[in-house]
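Quick one:
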Amino acid sequence: MRKPVAIITCICLAIAALTASLATADTTKTIKVGDDWFQSSSPRVPRVTVRQNTIVRFKFVGNDVHNVIGYRGQAQRNKFESPIKSSGYYNKRMTTRGTFTIICDIHGAYNQSMKLVVTR
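Output:
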């Protein structure tokens, strides 16, 4: 009788481990950064929504150099900033919930901005 109990216990532990790994698996959202646009040229100021702990992968696809700066509110709390790039990626794990304004500091908020909403 011990063998069936041991087998069932092993199966239950394996299922629990698999469930835990799936629950903590990273989610990634790619946002393209082009010449004077994020994600797409329409709408003018796109809005992207992701869940908390999502890795946002900014993919630089333009001909010019750009950077990505994210901030919340007037005080610019929780600010993050990418290096200046014309190609490649910048990854940021979004751990704080709220609405972030994302701009290219080189070209200004008017020419290139978006909203990134991080939900629970």
